Amino acid sequence: MESRRVEALADGVFAVAMTLLVLGVHVPELPEPVTGAALLAALRTLVPSLAGYAVGFLLLGTLWLGHHNQFRFIRRADRTLLWINLFFLLAVASVPFTTALIARYPLQPVAMAIFGGTLLVAGVFLFAHWSHAVNAGLVDDEVTPEAAELVRERMSMAMVACLVATIIGAFLPKAGLVLFGCMPVLSMLPGRVDPALAGEASTTD
Amino acid sequence: MESRRVEALADGVFAVAMTLLVLGVHVPELPEPVTGAALLAALRTLVPSLAGYAVGFLLLGTLWLGHHNQFRFIRRADRTLLWINLFFLLAVASVPFTTALIARYPLQPVAMAIFGGTLLVAGVFLFAHWSHAVNAGLVDDEVTPEAAELVRERMSMAMVACLVATIIGAFLPKAGLVLFGCMPVLSMLPGRVDPALAGEASTTD
Amino acid sequence: MESRRVEALADGVFAVAMTLLVLGVHVPELPEPVTGAALLAALRTLVPSLAGYAVGFLLLGTLWLGHHNQFRFIRRADRTLLWINLFFLLAVASVPFTTALIARYPLQPVAMAIFGGTLLVAGVFLFAHWSHAVNAGLVDDEVTPEAAELVRERMSMAMVACLVATIIGAFLPKAGLVLFGCMPVLSMLPGRVDPALAGEASTTD
Amino acid sequence: MESRRVEALADGVFAVAMTLLVLGVHVPELPEPVTGAALLAALRTLVPSLAGYAVGFLLLGTLWLGHHNQFRFIRRADRTLLWINLFFLLAVASVPFTTALIARYPLQPVAMAIFGGTLLVAGVFLFAHWSHAVNAGLVDDEVTPEAAELVRERMSMAMVACLVATIIGAFLPKAGLVLFGCMPVLSMLPGRVDPALAGEASTTD
Fold first, then answer.
1. C28, pLDDT greater than 80
2. Is pLDDT at D183 greater than 60 in this prediction?
3. Percentage above 90 pLDDT, chain C
4. What is the pLDDT of residues C45-65, one digit of tens each?
5. Nearest 10 degrees: CA dihedral of B15, B17, B22, B26?
6. Which of A56, A59, B110, D21 is within CB 3.0–4.6 Å of A99 for a Cys-Cys bond?
7. Bridge partners of C139?
8. Closest by CA position to D84, among listed D21, D16, D134
9. Which chains are adjacent to chain B, needing at least 3 Cβ pairs under 8 Å?
């Protein structure tokens, strides 16, 4: 299948980016003799890093899911699709940096704007990816215009949510953090898009 | 196959996490002139790091094996399975951190509890993964309820062992270290589950 | 397919190299209390690193695309092809280092020469890879000598462009930086080679 | 295919280990103002690291090639094979550490012994991997006992070469370095094993 290696590269970038996130969590260095209370206190200061790790991982997971779902229906790739995919991965691979930035400066609006802005850019490229695939006829013939439109709607809603969280976060960083933390949860809910696509998938099985 | 990319992402996360473990082993910095005796003495201080690397790697290998064995029978994926898988990988990708923590503070109960607790969480998600796959009918039709139950039993035993080792380790860190070091060995032994599953596999070959 | 694992290794090396690039961008360390203005000023000093990340990523993307396109037609692998591939990946995997070097010393001719020289070496091995595959009969029978020649021409042009940019960069580093930044853009343009290869691909679909 | 994911994990570990090697090459930090001569002098001190990177990469490539060639004929995997494979990968993933060690202390016998010893251990597991696959009937039926024996012979020779280089290196580190640098070159030469296996492969194509 023509699109196999595009998926392999993407899976690799996602896997590395997800796992590199943990390098942002540093084992605390304590002077000897180390007491349990001192270690516990030092570990408590890691909570922002650990929360950043978990949220960054799950947001990457959400993007991966979107990419994965598209490729269930994309059958071919052209030069434009490959480049949109590379720009999408450029944003994805920068998440370990933006996550480390926000874990270090959780209350700074500019950190929030960069974190949210990167996710928004990733979302825009993912949207462009699907739009191009549908328009250029690279998707499975079984994908009806209605199903393609449902996917576009769901992605638009996700991008609007991300834009709103970024704007709110640029003024109220704490509220922004909570909103981004909730975003993967939304993606866990079954959507109207599922039965439509499941229908497609089952007919092509 | 629907589940192909889930496996690709998981294999990527496992491969990166396993290999990142080695970044926890630092080449010692010695002042010039370097003597063989000084280097040997410095390398001896690396033994906890190296043991941590080996044990962390083999425990990840054990988890990978469990994941691998499940996907020999999982044929499809739904949104719930994908999210259980992502939470499982979230725990897996944090092992380089928990291993570095325990290699740095091998005798601290809190380090032991975090190390063992993370593995236990990974085990719980792996168990939930299989249970959901069986209950939602995502596995091969050839998997009998008895075989599915045998897998569940084996996984439950592994989780109980992990829980016991974590609790013991939280009081007697040295005993906990030995128990976790033994765990991959147990997984190397052939189990009652092998012939049952081999039977399944051969009929689907 | 014989060539499947060669592609898997290459995709893995590309994915890791692309994502490791971001480790060259360090979160700035500011003394407390942190003001928005101080953070913004510190982030501005990251612009060369971020530009290096983006350009390095897209140049790796360009090389990946070339590798990907070759393997659409390569059906088998022999020992020579595997070794040419390994030397190509040796150059690819060093890009995180050469990119960090040029991001740190953007105006030093020697940094420019190493950065450009590494890309040129990668290009030469990629060219040798295709030449060997065609000459040793490892490609699909549908690849006409004309199409094989078109690919070689396109790759030669890319190598000449890289050589010119390296030489110019060794004297005028700023001009070299601009030229390397433009190179992925050139690769995004559709080429004469596309319809010829698309023709091949569609007949083999 | 049963053995597909074993290969995916192995390719991932090799790709990460190969690319992590480059993290052992550090961009030199020079005080301002930076002159071309000072940078060139600083880069010259990187030669041992760069040589270590190249030799480590090509030795990993040699091991990957051996693994790759085995899996052209391995059709199934059992629990024992999976564990031998994991121990092989444990040795492979430690190469970034042993390479950094030898690049830092190239003239220390103990560094040489650890570097060579790790490669030898990897070779022993790779040999055990093939022996087990042949003995347990996990390979393709087309593999004749003669071909299986030829592979074993070739691997034995490689292990003897590695043992000799390690022993020599433990006494004469410089000679050991040269010998390990030559080892990938030997692997590039076509062997008696190639036509025998090519014959097998072509009949199964």
1. yes
2. yes
3. 55
4. 999 889 989 999 999 999 999
5. 150
6. A56
7. C74
8. D134
9. A, C, D
Provide the residue range defining the domain that includes D141. Answer: 4-204
Contacts of C205 in chain A (CB under 8 A): 2
CB B115 within 8 A of CB B164: no
Alpha helices in A72-192 (DSSP H): 79-93, 95-104, 109-135, 145-171, 173-188
* Rounded Cα gap, residues A201 and A192, in angstroms: 15
The C-alpha atoms of residue D170 and residue D176 are separated, in whole angstroms, by 8
Bridge partners for C203 per DSSP: none
Output the CA torsion sign for D88, D90, D91, D93: positive
Tell me the average pLDDT across B110-125.
94
Residues whose CB falls within 8 Å of the CB of residue D74, separated by 6 or more in sequence, listed in order: D3, D81, D133, D138, D139, D140
Which residue among A22, A36, A68 sits closest to B93, beta carbon to beta carbon? A22
Confirm if D22 and D101 have CB atoms less than 8 A apart: no
pTM across the whole model:
0.91
pLDDT at B201: 44
Find the residue in C nearest to B16 (Cα): C16
Residue C198 has a pLDDT of 53
List Cα–Cα distances, B175 to B109, D15, D158, in angstroms. Answer: 11, 36, 41
Please name the chains neighbouring C, where neighbouring means 3+ C-beta pairs under 8 angstroms. A, B, D
Domains: count for chain B: 1
Write out the two tokens for A131.
């739009």
What separation in angstroms does the CA of C136 have from each of A101, B5, C140, C147, D128? 51, 33, 11, 16, 33
How far apart CA D103 and CA D173 sit, in angstroms, is: 12
Residues of A in contact with C188 (CB under 8 A): 79, 83
Beta-carbon contacts of residue A61 (< 8 Å; ≥ 6 apart)? A18, A184, B83, B86, B89, B90
**Sign of the dihedral defined by the CA atoms of residues B40, B44, B47, B49, in that order:** negative
* CB contact B1 to A (< 8 Å): no
A15 interfaces chain D, CB cutoff of 8 Å: yes
Helix ranges, A105-144 (H): 109-135
Tokens linked to C203: 């007949």
Q: Verify whether the Cβ–Cβ distance B90 to A7 is below 8 Å.
A: no
| pLDDT given for residue A2 in this prediction | 66
Is residue A111 packed enough to be buried (19+ CB in 10 Å), middle (13-18) or exposed (0-12)?
buried
Q: Tokens for D99, please give them.
A: 């390479």
In the Cβ-directed half-sphere of B35, how many Cα atoms lie within 13 Å?
3
How buried is C44 (Cβ within 10 angstroms: 0-12 exposed, 13-18 middle, 19+ buried)? exposed
Band (C193; pLDDT cuts 50, 70, 90): low
